[in-house]
C-alpha cells in the first residue's frame, strides 16, 4: 500500500513537471510566432546602391549648393581626375558635374555628349550607373530642348519688338512731317494774306480810279477846236 501511494506521488510530480515544461514550450512557441509575424510584416529595407552611385549623387548635391567656392573646388577636382585618367567612372562623374545646373561650369551640351558616349558601351557600366546615365541623359535632353525653345521665343519677341519700334518710329516721323507741312502751309498762307493786304492798301491810296489808270491822253482829252 505504501509503495502504491509512493508511486502515485511520483507520477503526480512527473505529470506536474511535464505540464510545466509544456507550458514553457507553449509560451516560447507563442513568442517565436509573434516575432516571426513582426519580422514578416516589417517593411523591407531598400537594397543599397552598388558601385559609386552615391558618389555621383553627392557630386550633384554639392554642386547645387549656393557656395561658389565649394562648387569651384569640387568641379576642379572632378575635371582634373577626368583629364588625368578618363576612365568610365571618372567620365561619368565629369558628365554628372557638367549636366548639373546651378553652377558656373555647367555645360549640359558637353555633358550630354559624354553620357551618350558612355551609354554607347553599356557593358562597361554597372546597372545603377546605366540607370543614372539614362535618366540624366533624358533630363538633359529635355532641358536643352526647353532652353532652345526659350531662345527661339525670346528672339521672336525681340524681332517683334524691333519691328514695332520701327513702326512706331515711322508713325512718329510721319506725324512730325505732317506737322511740319501744316506749319509751312500756315506760314505760306500768312505771307499770301500779307501780300493781298499790301495790294489792297496800295489800291486804296491811289488818286486815279482803277478803271482809268491805263487810259491814253487822246481818250481823256476832248477834240481840238476848229479854226
Largest sheet: none
Shape: rod-shaped
* Structure summary, number of beta strands: 0
Report low-confidence residues grouped into runs of 5 or more. Answer: 1-8, 10-26, 36-51
Radius of gyration over C-alpha positions, nearest whole angstrom: 55 Å
Helical fraction = over 70%
Mean pLDDT: 75
* Backbone structural class: mainly alpha
Strand fraction equals under 5%
Please work out how many helical segments DSSP would assign. 7
N-end to C-end Cα span: 224 Å
Order of helices and strands: HHHHHHH
Considering the chains and any ligands shown, give keywords for the structure.
single chain, mainly alpha, 0% strand, Lipoprotein
Description:
This protein has helices at residues 2-41, 53-63, 68-84, 88-99, 108-119, 127-205, 217-220. Helix 5 packs antiparallel against helix 6 (127-205). It has 227 residues and is mostly helical. The model is unreliable at 1-8, 10-26 and 36-51 (pLDDT under 50).
